[in-house]
Amino acid sequence: MRGEQDPQVSMLAFIDMETRVPLDHPLRTIRRLADEALAALSPTFDAMYAVCGRPSIPPERLLKASLLISLYSVRSERAFCEQLDYDLLFRWFLGMNLIEPSFDPSTFSKNRQRLLEHNVAQQFFDRVVLQANTLGFLSDEHFTVDGTLIEAAASLKSFRPKDQPPSDEPPDDAGNPSVNFHGQKRSNATHQSTTDPDARLFRKGKGKEAKLVFLAHTLMENRNGLVIDFEVTAATGTAEREAAIRQVDEAKHDGFRPATLGGDKNYDTKNFVANMRERDVTPHVAQNTSGRRSAIDGRTTRHAGYAISQRIRKRVEIVCSQLTKTRVRAGFGRGNDVPNLHRVISDDHSVNQQLYQFSALFEGSLLETTG
Fold it and tell me: If you compute the radius of gyration of the chain from its CA atoms, what whole number of angstroms results?
């Protein structure tokens, strides 16, 4: 029997949004973890705001909104505020009813800047990691580090000589001007992006194309493959190893006791291996023997733990590769509908850091282990 459309619009409806969200939806686990972490940050929020005046957007909602932007790769804050007007799932996650108006985009940006200035996003990240550690999901001794390239929101056309004054002539096309840079020798020492000056021209390997990028660095524990630290830096040839040393030091400061650190061939250098051994951390990095001698010898590779670290370190490569792809694997959308996250970020690198940090936190096995 053919169904018929009812042209009469319902004037009154009673909807329980809790029943509209599937019981196995991954956002249920994320909301529970986020709410527990944010409850512990309430004293910090109290100190950030004045006692009197016009109420702001609740900081808890701002951080949870950043989670949604990150996990669903929403193109911009303005697009998120528009989508919040009609998306029941987003409203349920933020604890909003159907009547509440959406955030104003400009107010949203200004309020979130306050959180960035007080480093609340990092505290939120650390609280979720602490929850996983309290539940016994984190290894205390064995870790893996890896880096990945993150494309900047800048085109190669914006990469111009630093000493070149801006042209007074209008471009042939204001939206997409013609730029002929063939035959020019361009490097980070002489050129700079006019769109994002902090971006660096970098290639992933020999034979690969050079792009304007940043480097993201991930520290993962080996028991369940959960990310415990994450940062974004400028792209240099030594940035991965420098970030790994910082992350190991910070892990020790946070109460972890790193005994081994897995990594790929890029970490197989004498200086890095020596730095790890000075910190009583055994470097279980892959040997790089391409025309050179590896800094790792049989004293390390003969042990069974080395082979285990090399097998487990592949988990962090999955996490890093997913950071620049859609959230399909976590069940957050369809591939054709969700843009790559690195196409979403702007030249506000504090927001860049926050969005990728949140993605890294929930891109590993956290949902499976705590679900």
Answer: 23
